[in-house]
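Much of the work behind modern protein science is quiet bookkeeping, done one molecule at a time. The fold becomes a row of whole numbers, each drawn from a learned catalogue of backbone shapes. The protein below has been through that process, and both of its lines are reproduced in full.
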Amino acid sequence: MSAGASAASAAIGGEGAGLTGAIVDEARLYEQTTPCCCSADHFTVREMDVLCQVAAGLTNDEAAVVLSISTNTVAGHLREMLNRCGVRRRAELVARAYAAGVLSPGEWPPRRTGRRCIQLPAGTSNGHEPN
């Protein structure tokens, strides 16, 4: 395993069975959540996978290794999430995900809450609107 892949694996909590177990736990979380009743956009399950890797600080190359997808696929998911959220940078995307309740605060590595709705809570701004 390359140094980048080892770092990527370490960033999400290890290799092998531990990682597989975490993926299975996450899949169970999806099964237990009910869909949101709002009309806002939602992240796909795969976009959530990419988002968690980005929130952990991984590069596109490292996230691709961890998720067993191509770097171009990671970039495509990121581009789509950035556009849908109306943000310009990865850091803004992660901040938006925490603000919308998509990622669980205070946990490392970053974890999903089960919510995939990207609508910000009422009274919150995306930071690009004039006051």
